[in-house]
Specification:
By secondary structure, the protein is mainly α. It has one domain. 66% of the residues lie in helices and 3% in strands. A hairpin with a 3-residue loop joins strand 2 and strand 3. The N and C termini lie far apart (54 Å). Its main location: membrane.
Length: 462
């Protein structure tokens, strides 16, 4: 059986050339994660006996392998043109909120991601995830991406030195003119945005690497002192044994860290909600671009891509990375005509080939790698254009979803705010009959979530 027959290319009115081009396009659009994921997780993961550079290179290998496995499953099992990798926003939640913010050992956080993946596999097999996706309110679904985009942009701008803390106003403009790293980061950001606007393939990667090269050239020319803009370069580190299987240490070691079953369950609960709605929004959003949705706005056979996503999360946690999810950048390949799993297979193979660039992960400064977060944040704002802003029962849940995420530095709060407010405003205008039982249950579940995250219950438990 050839590729055309296996992936049913004729049934989807496509061919090998089109699918290959689509796969290359998707890979270039999302390949920045090979640089950004290690930079993000590297701030939360430290391993005795290894330098920060070596840990970042381990994380780069793990990022690539998890993307390869997950996307291959999507290609061969689900036969959809969706690519997967450790998710932006989800890795930030793992690093900044759970590990750094709550002080949870990173091994325990990986264990929570593993348990979350197993739960997703079971729920997907039972058809529960599909039912829940069909239940959550449309305005929230349309606004989640923009909210996550705002959150990512804030993180990126902070690391670039554009946004700084201020005692009086909470945040303010950083000292860009007097901080060489901030100056270069801003220049790199505009360079990257210009490339993206012109439709240059791989513009984000080109922007990150271009900024990095500029940093080394500036130091080499003696404009600034060595070490001002760059980090040290070490030999390649492909041994991932300190990361692979660390989730087991997290499972058995949680009690020793004072984390009981209830506290661990709360961590899993939090990961679950953040990942669930991120994945659901991406699949539905990209599925809409690809023309996969039916006349009722539902995604036929969504269980298969959901299962691929669940397997990706589970395998990723076993290898040593945060939640693996379906990438919104898959839309770039879809726009090139990708309609089957062959597109995803091409992406998977390109990820595997990218193992040769692992040493680059350690030489890219954080301010350069975080340019991607700002660019992707801007791109993700496009999701709000489909919201019916002239209808207050749509505008309020969507607006709260978008605003609450970055302003509280928490993805889960934004999702919860939108879902809880939807039935409230619907009842207020007398449209209570438009709120389904499932939406009431979701709102109730998020009230519990709000309580857990704002009452100190989670922090007290851990």
């Amino acid at each position: 059986m050839g590729l055309a027959d296996y992936f049913a290319l004729d049934d989807h009115d496509t061919d090998v050339r089109t699918e290959t081009l689509a796969g290359v396009t998707t890979f270039f659009a999302m390949s920045y994660i090979v640089l950004v994921n290690p930079a993000t997780l590297g701030q939360a993961i430290s391993i005795p006996g290894y330098t920060g550079d070596q840990v970042q290179q381990m994380l780069a290998v793990v990022t690539i392998l998890s993307a390869f496995v997950a996307t291959t499953v999507m290609a061969l099992y689900a036969n959809r043109p969706f690519a997967q990798a450790p998710g932006l926003g989800l890795n930030a939640f793992f690093a900044y909120t759970v590990v750094i913010g709550l002080g949870i050992p990173w091994q325990v956080a990986l264990a929570a991601v593993f348990v979350e993946g197993i739960i997703f596999i079971l729920l997907t097999a039972a058809g529960a995830r599909k039912a829940i996706i069909r239940a959550f309110p449309e305005p929230v679904k349309l606004a989640v991406g923009a909210g996550i985009g705002g959150f990512l942009a804030l993180i990126g701008l902070q690391e670039m030195g554009v946004v700084a803390a201020d005692q009086a106003t909470m945040v303010t403009l950083g000292q860009i003119a007097t901080d060489p790293a901030a100056t270069l980061a801003v220049a790199g950001l505009f360079f990257t945005l210009a490339l993206y606007a012109r439709g240059v393939p791989g513009s984000i990667v080109v922007g990150i690497l271009g900024t990095t090269v500029a940093a080394y050239v500036i130091e080499w020319a003696g404009v600034v002192a060595p070490g001002t803009l760059t980090t040290s370069i070490t030999g390649a580190q492909y041994d991932i044994t300190p990361l692979a299987g660390a989730f087991v240490d997290g499972l058995v070691g949680a009690p020793a860290e004072g984390i009981d079953v209830f506290a661990f369950a709360l961590i899993v609960f939090t990961f679950f909600f953040v990942d669930f709605f991120d994945t659901a929004g991406t699949l539905v959003g990209v599925g809409q671009v690809a023309g996969f949705l039916d006349e009722d706005g539902n995604f036929p056979d969504i269980d298969k891509p959901l299962m691929a996503d669940a397997i990706g999360t589970t395998v990723g946690s076993m290898l040593g990375t945060s939640t693996v999810t379906t990438y919104i950048e898959s839309a770039t390949g879809v726009e090139e005509g990708g309609r089957t799993g062959l597109t995803a297979l091409v992406v998977a193979l390109l990820f595997l080939a990218s193992l040769v660039v692992v040493p680059l992960a350690a030489i890219v400064p954080l301010y350069a790698s975080h340019i991607a977060l700002v660019v992707v944040g801007v791109i993700m704002l496009a999701n709000v254009t489909d919201v019916a802003w002239d209808d207050m029962t749509y505008a309020i849940p969507a607006g709260l979803t978008v605003f609450v995420m970055p302003f509280t530095y928490n993805i889960g709060y934004g999702i919860a705010a939108g879902i809880v407010s939807y039935p409230v405003v619907k009842v207020a205008v007398g449209e209570y009959d438009e709120v389904s039982a499932g939406q009431w249950l979701l709102a109730l579940a998020f009230v519990v979530y709000f309580y857990v995250r704002t009452s100190g219950t989670l922090a007290a438990a851990v």
